[in-house]
Amino acid sequence: MADPRARLQELSPGQRAAFARLVAKRRAIPDPDAADVSGFVLDTAASPDHAEVKAGYRRFYNTVSAQLDRDLYGDFSFFLNYGFASDGSPELATVPLPEHYINRNSVKLVLELVGDCPIEGRRVLDVGCGRGGTAHVLKTFFKPAHVTGLDLSPNAVAFCRRAHGDANTEFIEGDAERLPFPDATFDVATNVESSHSYPNIHRFHGEIARVLRPGGHFLYTDALSLQQTQAAIGFLQHVGLDVERDRDITPNVLLSCDQIATVRVQAFDAGNDQDLVANFLATPGSQVYVDLQSGRWTYRMLKLRKRSGAPGA
Ligand SMILES: C[S@@+](CC[C@H](N)C(=O)[O-])C[C@H]1O[C@@H](n2cnc3c(N)ncnc32)[C@H](O)[C@@H]1O
Known about the structure:
Elements: H1 4-10, H2 13-22, H3 50-70, H4 104-114, E1 123-127, H5 133-141, E2 146-151, H6 154-164, E3 169-173, E4 186-192, H7 201-211, E5 212-225, H8 226-238, E6 241-248, H9 250-264, H10 274-281, H11 287-294, E7 297-306
Parallel strand pairs: 1-2, 1-4, 2-3, 4-5
Antiparallel strand pairs: 5-7, 6-7
Helix pairs in contact: 2-3, 3-6, 4-5
C-alpha cells in the first residue's frame, strides 16, 4: 500500500482541499472499483470515499456556477479552464482566433485541442462540460452533427441548457466514470481540464473507450502529475486508444494564467475559500501554479483514436 502522504501529494490541489474538509468525516469504505478489469490495480486505500469526493466537487462547481450566474458578465462566462496563450511555439489550430473574441485564451485552448481533427457532421460528447465553452466553440467553428455535454454539476448543466441548448445540442447531468450511453455512440469525445477531479480516472478512460465508435477520436487535455499522466496514457492505450498526438502545453497554460487568473478572481465572492479559488484559477503563486511551474505536474493535450476491435467496437 502506498504511503498515504505520497498518495495525498498525487491529488490535485482542488482534491487536496476537498480531502482536508472531508477527512474529519471520512469513513473507510472499501471501493469496489479498486481493481480494474485491465489488471491496473488502483490503490484507493488511502483515498477518501469516492462518492464524498464527487459530492464535494458537485457542491463546489454548483457554487462557482451560481456565483457566475450572478456576475455582470455571467451570461458570457462559458469557460472554467485556465486557457492557452501563444508563446511562439508551433500551434495546431486550423481556425484563426477572431479579434476581440471574449474568453480568448479559453477559446484558443479548445481550438488547439481540436487542431485538424474532423468534427463536421460528427456526433460529439463533451465530458465535464462545465458552462458549455467547448460545446460553444465546436458549434461556432466546426459544424458537428450533434453535441452532448455531460457534467456532475446541475447548476452548470442548467446554465448550458439556457445558453447553448438547441435541437442538436443537449446537456445532461452525469458522472464521467459512469457514462449513460450505449457502446459506440459517439464519433468524437472531448474532455477539458476536468479529469483531475475524478477519483477513479481509469474508469473514465474505460468509459470513453466504450462509448466511442471504432476510429472515433478522443481529444483530451488536463493538468495531472507526471506519474498520473504516464499512467493515463498507458491505460488509454490498454483499453484500445492509440495516441496520435501528445503535446506538453504547460508553458502556454502558465502564460495564460499570468495573463488572466488575477482578473478572474474578481468574479468570486470574498466569502469563498480563497486558497481553493486561487488553485481553481491557478493564480501565480498558488499551489497548482507552482506544481506546473516546477514540472511535478504537466498540462498535456492528447489526440487519441479508437482502434478497430477494441472493447465496445
Ligand atoms: C475546471 S471545470 C472545466 C469545465 C469545462 N470543461 C471548461 O473547460 O470550461 C471541471 C468540470 O468538471 C466537472 N466534473 C468534475 N467531476 C466530474 C465527474 N465525475 N463527472 C462529470 N463532470 C465532472 C465539474 O463539475 C466542472 O464543471
